[in-house]
Every structure is written in C-alpha cells, then in structure tokens.
Amino acid sequence: MRTIFSIVTALGALLLGASPLVAQEQAAAQGQGVTLTLAEVEERARLSPELRAQQSARQDHARWQAYRADRAWWPKIEAQTLIAPVPANADPSNLDENLDEILSLNLGPLFRQSARVIVPVYTFGRVSIARELAALGVDVAEIEAEEALAEHLLRARQAYFGRQLAEAFGALLSEGETLVNGALTEMEDARDFGEASFSTEDFRRLQIFKAEFDTMMLDNARLRDLSDSALRYLIDEDGSIRVPPLDPERVDAPLASLEAVQRYAGEHRRDLQLLAQGLRARELQLDLARRDYWPNIFAAVDFGFAWSTEAPALQRVCRRAAPGEPCIDVDTLWTRPYSNPLNSLTLGVGVGLRWQFDLAQQRGKVGESQAKLAELRAQADRARGAVALEVEQAWRTAADARARVEIEARRLDAARRWRNQFGLQNELSDANMRDALDPLRAYYEAQAAHLEAAHAYLAARARLARVVGAPSLEALAGLPD
C-alpha cells in the first residue's frame, strides 16, 4: 500500500500531460456503466478522433509537398498588368512640352499587359531530388503517426492498469474495513458496558490501524478517479466505465529473452526508421546543394501588348534641298511617328539558362550540408547504442517486476497462513487483539504488495512494448529466441 501515492502521482502527471481540463472531468452518468477489456480500450484509443485528425493533417501536409514536387515540370505563368497616366501629345524629343501637358493635367490612360510562360527543360537533377525528398516526407509523416498512436496506446494501457489496480485495492480495503470496523464496534460496546477484556493499548493500536485503512481508502479513491478520468479522455468516452479488477494470478505472461527483444527493436523501432530516413534526407540535401553550381535550362514564351487613348505628338519633318543642306520649312512639315510606343504588340519564344554566380555562398551551403550529414551520422551511431541500452533497461525492469510477482506471491501465501493460524478470516477477537494485529497487518500488506507487483509488471510490459515498437503486449511473448 505504500506505493499507492506514487501510482496516483504518476497518473496525475499523465492527466496533466494529456489535457489541463481532464483532471476536472467527473463521471456524470449513473448506473453500471460500460465494462471494457484491455483489447476494447486499445481499439477505442486507436479510433480517437482528435489523434486521427492531427495525424491526418500532418500526413496531408507531406502529401501536398509531394504533389508540388511531382508537378515541378509544369509550365509557370508570370503575368503583369499596368495602368498608368501618360501625357497627351507626348513628344519624346521635347521634355518641356511633356511637362506642360502633365501640369495642365492633359493626361490619358495607358494599359499594358505582359505574360511569360516558362517551362523547365533540364534542372540537372534538382526536380528528381525534390521528388525523393517529398516522398521521404510522406514516409516520415506516416512513421510519426504510428509513433503518436503508440504513445497514445501506452497512456491508455497505463490508465487501464491503474483503474484495475484501484478496483482490486477497493475490494481488498472494503474487506479489511469491514473486519476492523466490526472489531472496533464490539470493543467500544464492551467498554461502554464495562465488559472490556482488552487493554487500552490494544484498543489504540486497532484505532491506529483503522486510521491507516482510512488513509489507504482515500488514496485509492484518488487513484480510481484519476485513472477513470484519464481512461475516459484517452478513449473518448463520456459515460462511466467499469473494468475487471486486477488479478495477479492472470498477469504472469511469458517474457521473451533480451536478445530477441533487442533484435525485434532493431527491426521495428520507429525512431530508428526515422533516423534512416533522416540520413537519406541529409544526403539528398547535400546533393541538392551541389547542383546549385549548375544552371536551370528553360524555354520561355513572352507576350505583351499596350494600348492608350492618347497618341504621341506629330514629329517635324526635315526636308533638305541637298544632302548636308539645312532643313527648310521646318515649321510647316509635320507627320505622325513611324510607330506608336503607347500601342504595341510583342511575342517572343526562346530557350535560356538561369545561372546564379555566388560561388562563396554556394560553397558555404555545400559545407553546411556536409557538416550536418556528418553530425547526423555520428548521432545515428550513438542512437543505436542508446536504443540498445534503453531496451535492456526496459526489459530488465519487466523481468525484475515479473520475478517480484512470484516473490510477493510467496509472501502473501505465508501471510495468509499466519493470519489463518489465528482464525482471523472473518472476525477479530478482543481476547487475541495483541497477537492478531501483526498477522492481520502482514496479510493486508502482502495483499497490497502482491497487487502492486502485478501492476508494476503490467506497466513494465506496456513500457517495453512501447520501447521496442511492438503493436501489442502479446507480441512480446511470442518473439523467437
């Protein structure tokens, strides 16, 4: 019973990490509620709408990035629309007259539209690298979704096991409370009628024992409420929930060897898969940085037109009697310009190279990519060793917890025999109170320790399944050595 508080604290941390509002939720529904097995809890946890929506959005983001990369060869259209005022009778050779027209607000509109269609022809591998990076992003999003689901399932299992422990503790404490309350009532009645055959010390010891029971029941009520709130939140259940009490006799599931568990983790651990994807992404980014030394080859089509209500001023005509002679009658000879720049139509087709000559920056980008790749490779080597250590620690915790279940079972058997030796299965006698309290305390402490050991083994197996990447607890038992 001494570790109930630690279990309650862990469940409280689980609730605070899940949502700040969950701790305030209370079961409003009355009645029996729905009874759930662990398999049903896991199935409901997998169908969590909030979790599915979050992961779906993340995967959609990666898919849209892949969508963009797959269509990098599509033509790109650039268009520009311009509306501007222009002076009437503008004379390109006489700025003063143009200023006079502008100052007198003798203006007209000019509309100009241009468009360019650019089609990539060859990018020296940039597009193919971008496609592969986008495909890696989709794979990473799927792995992260599986990782988030595994963490969600771990929390659901922890909450379920905590609720089972609370149910088992509740039954145990109710049994002990009935026994102790009955003995206290009889002793108080005997004192009231002057028929007490027990010492005051024995009476106080039983009262202290009763206070300990009350404290345990208070802790267990908190454990039950927190685990119930966590479970309802994680499986999105608004009504009350019932679970079967924890049965230590049914938790002794086999545990695969350390070598088998480590081998399984090396093949299924999701963060190792993410690490492999990250290494490939760094290699592609380095390759992409090197491609910046090369140009992009493209084909382009340019189209443009302009139109205005105004027209340029008439231009003077210089007529000479002979070459080299001065112009004659310059004030009377005028004509329209050969072309009107305010009204135009253009069309062009070509193939071009787009270069970026920034060698220092390009070399720096390549160096940065090389350094990041080297760093990630070093981290990968360390991560594999860290994963092996983490798996070994989780496996050792589970193995020790399983051994503790057997030890506490022997302790409980001895405590039960000691209790039965005094005939204390159902009632306490004031005549043997001094001798009865020690075996009674030992029995209930052994019961509690046995339940806690069983709960610790279940929690350790759930944690081990999470560490190695197993989809279920049963997968840990069937691993080949």
From TrEMBL:
How far does the signal peptide extend, from start to end residue? Answer: 1-23
**SUPFAM superfamilies reported in the protein's UniProt record:** Outer membrane efflux proteins (OEP) (SSF56954)
Entry keywords, A to Z? Cell outer membrane, Coiled coil, Membrane, Signal, Transmembrane, Transmembrane beta strand
Which GO molecular function annotation, any one, does this entry have?
porin activity
**Gene3D superfamilies according to UniProt:** Outer membrane efflux proteins (OEP)
Which stretches are transmembrane?
Answer: none
Q: Which domain of life is it from?
A: Bacteria
* GO CC terms: cell outer membrane; efflux pump complex
UniProt feature coiled coil, ranges? 359-386
Q: Show the InterPro entries listed in the entry.
A: TolC-like (IPR051906)
Q: Where is the protein found, in the record's own terms?
A: Cell outer membrane
The record's section on PANTHER family has: MEMBRANE EFFLUX PROTEIN, PUTATIVE-RELATED, OUTER MEMBRANE PROTEIN TOLC
Q: What is this protein called?
A: TolC family protein
